[in-house]
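Objective 1.3, modelling of assemblies. Example input:
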Amino acid sequence: MIPAAFFLALSIVLFALGVAAFFIKRDLITMFMAVEVMLSAANLAFLTFAKSTASLDGQVIVFFVITVAAAESAVGLAIILLVFKRKKSIQSDDLNVMKG
Amino acid sequence: MALLLFFILASLSAGGVVGMIVSRDRAYSVLFLVLAFAALGGVFGLLDAPFVAAIQVLIYAGAIMILFVFVIMMVNRRNDRGSEKKKSVGVFAAILAMTLFAELLLAVRGILPGMGNGGPVGGAETAGLGSLLFEKYLYPLEITSILIIAALTGAISMAGKKGPK
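Predicted structure (tokens):
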């Protein structure tokens, strides 16, 4: 029997790594992948709590989160493609039109 | 045995994310992330959630990551890799992530004593999940399907637009 604390620790580690990756990387696609990592970490926490309370509702929430993540990545990648068409670059530093 | 499996899978997934951060090439980043998500699917399996584990591997490691691979193939050019942000940004990001990590650890430590390990949810978990999805959570399910149709239509109409000439 694996204690729930281990799963929560893994979830926290993954979330922190996702935050770090989001700020360290500079191209839009990798930043977007970092967001997916954070979503997965949240899913892991949901599943841990679902198991520790012996209810299935947490798994249903994870199902919805995965669906919304799929929709989000479809729209986000389309936006990245548009940005690439317009700017010929997907580095976040090059998107400085609104910079003062 | 299960504990050993958990440690292997956990280190694979965390290591995959670290590999995504350190690798310079986007294509390698996305492959590292596929590894991380597949290992995370194994962790989900250890949490008595076989259906969610299958979904994680199929949808995340399969479909969503393939979408990323396609976009990377469309936008990757030889000359725009490397040249990371200034070092100070990395240091600040690391400090921020460590602070967040400590905060979350503190928050979790408060609730852990009251948490049981739970029993097995019951023999027919996937069947229970299905009936929960189509009874208690029927409206959210339908709304999600509308959301995903709208997102796909929007993505297609956006990506099909002609760029400015």
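Helices of chain A lie at 4-24, 28-52, 57-87.
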